[in-house]
Amino acid sequence: MAGHSKWANIKHKKGKADAERGKIFTKIGREIAIAVKEGGSDPGTNGKLRDVIAKAKASNMPNDNITRSIKKASGELENVVYEEITYEGYAPGGIAVIVEVVTDNRNRTASEIRHIFDKNGGSLGTTGSVGYLFDFKGLIMIESSPDIDEDDLMMKALEAGAEDVQVSEDGYEIYTAPTDFSAVRDALENDGFTFLSAERQKIPQTTNEVTDGEQLEKIQKLLDMLDDNEDVMDVFHNADLPEEEEKE
């Protein structure tokens, strides 16, 4: 997503998270389960868990819920096995879409994701079919504030290992290599900065503007249905949707 719509999208997602807290927390709980399975329950030594906890806090998940989710994940790992899967496909108009899921039933999830694409005029592709159109980056977004000194923020971000800092009227977009994301986020958090969003993301190299009304409606419905699926953690696409329509 390009320009201002990126900020509108993030704010919409946060608003949606507030409205659908239970569903969002359930999804984050699954991510915690994956992280605990891979690296244990101590965020001090498990970088992936530390990243998920930061995401949980950004979604206003209470600390008690986070702690319970970690304990629950530690106790349930023998009974429920979650796996991470990435699907790639196309929305109407050739819009590239990447869907990241966490599921305990690969066949069920594959069927549901395929149905969503088919129902809305899209199609699932093979692994790698659209992934090359995106760059995997850490992205930290900080809203503009009179309390923030732009030069100070840029200096601290770059010193911490950020690759680039982009400034707009909405705020600051801090890009990092995936391996440097945690260190940059921790450094800025320790310096007192508050994040609108801080996650590793697949960033489209270029975006495609959607102007056809019928096509736009189908794309939006596809994105909404993916977002509502309980197995779907993240959806990335290269559509430059009108700001007032951006809901993914």
List key phrases describing it.
23% strand, 248 residues, globular, Alpha-Beta Plaits, 45% helix, 4-stranded antiparallel sheet, alpha+beta, Arc Repressor Mutant, subunit A
Structural class: alpha+beta
CATH superfamily of the largest domain: YebC, transcriptional regulation domain
- The percent of residues in helical segments reads 40-55%
The number of distinct β-strands equals 10
What can you tell me about this protein's structure?
There is one protein chain. By secondary structure, the chain is α+β, with helices and mostly antiparallel strands. The chain folds into three domains: 4-76, Arc Repressor Mutant, subunit A (Orthogonal Bundle); 83-132 and 205-245, YebC, transcriptional regulation domain (Alpha-Beta Plaits), CATH 3.30.70; 134-204, Alpha-Beta Plaits, CATH 3.30.70.980. 45% of the residues lie in helices and 23% in strands. It has helices at 4-19, 21-39, 47-58, 63-76, 106-119, 150-160, 181-190, 213-228; strands at 83-91, 95-103, 123-124, 134-143, 164-167, 171-176, 197-204, 208-209, 232-237, 239-240. A four-stranded antiparallel β-sheet has the order 3-1-2-9. Strand 5 (164-167) and strand 6 form a beta hairpin. It is globular. The termini are close together. 33% of the residues are buried. Mean pLDDT is 88; it is low at 244-248.
